[in-house]
Amino acid sequence: MGMRQLRPVLISAVVWVAAALPVFAGDLKDPSTLNETAPDVYRARFETTRGTFVIEVHRANAPLGADRFYNLVKIGYFTDVAFFRVLEGFMAQAGFHGNPAVSKVWLNSLIKDDPVKQSNYPGTVTFAMRGPDTRSAQIFVNYGDNSYLDESGFSSFGKVVEGFESVKALYSGYGEGAPNGKGPGQGKLYRGGNEYLEAEFPELDYIVKASIVE
Hints:
Elements: H1 3-19, E1 41-48, E2 51-58, H2 63-75, E3 81-87, E4 91-94, H3 100-106, E5 124-127, E6 139-142, E7 156-162, H4 164-168, H5 186-200, E8 206-212
Antiparallel strand pairs: 1-2, 1-8, 2-7, 3-4, 3-8, 4-6, 5-6, 5-7
Helix pairs in contact: 3-5
């Protein structure tokens, strides 16, 4: 049985373990409660259906982005979240929650831009955005040298320091999203969550669990 087929079992195990752990003082459906300041340096471990990778974050590179990412990981936002847009040589993107009700409250929970201090080179991690001051919960890992994104304000906040091969192995067969390609349409994903992805894009890889490890 492959990792994708095991995903429901793995997710169930994650939920069971989480129930026994202390509750983080924040509400996934109320972004205003998730406002902890991140440590100066920390690591986030991502367990996926393609393997595990670790992101190291230096808060000085992008303080607002580092804080938002820290809170998202710590609250468990990324559990069972798909890499819905994976483009070879460019990047792998995730961040729509599997539950549309959660995605809805995060759509307009935006943070201000950080000045670009760390370029978008291979392995760096950046928030997606749709214009100035529109970062929310969408992140992507740069596959190639995407430093041209710097001038548009894409401020990378971390870098994959372990397991980059797992990131590069994420399923990319669907290509660009609709309407420009055959991959998931972001509007449909926003409204339908994982139910939409599982029905129409069964080969996608998922984040099984993300946690702060340092």
